[in-house]
Amino acid sequence: ILGFAGDFGSIKIGQQWTAADDIYGADYSYFYGGSALGYSQLNGALHDSLIKYNYNSDNFFVAANYGLDENDSNQELAEIFVGGSAGDLSGHVGFGQTTDETGADKVEDTYYQATVEYSFGKAGIGFTYY
Questions:
Q1: How far is CA 31 from CA 26, 34, 36, in A?
Q2: How confident is the model over 48-85, as pLDDT tens digits?
Q3: CATH value at residue 28
């Protein structure tokens, strides 16, 4: 991975996990039918040629990435997420789109996510809408 960082955030280029994998949402149990996370169709959320931007402050974050398709040998991927927190309440919203032409068919997927979480002591509760 090649990258650089400053007060503006960080930019990394190379094989890495997608923003959707870094952020996801409320945790789902694998004991009840597997993962309900919508990004699971995306190369297992690992992309070979990803340009990724992250900005984090005390109560706010932005995460975005663009995955290069490299002449249809990878999925083309674009995602952006923004979120923040106030006390024990936190949340984020995001959007992603992928186009996969690595096989015989062209497959496109557009997804949205909104999550709100509340922490109390060592416990918490969260809700995610895909």
A1: 15, 6, 11
A2: 899 999 999 999 999 999 999 888 778 889 999 999 99
A3: 2.40.160.10
Contact call for residues 8 and 55 (beta carbons, < 8 A): yes
| 25 closest CA partner among 85, 89, 82, 92 | 92
Which pLDDT score is estimated for 41?
60
pLDDT value at position 74?
81
Residue whose structure tokens are 């694998």 = 30
Question: Residue for token digits 């340009």?
Answer: 51
| pLDDT reported for residue 30 | 59
Q: Compute the distance between CA of residue 123 and CA of residue 120 in angstroms, rounded to an integer.
A: 5
Domain that holds residue 71: 2-129
Domain count, the chain: 1
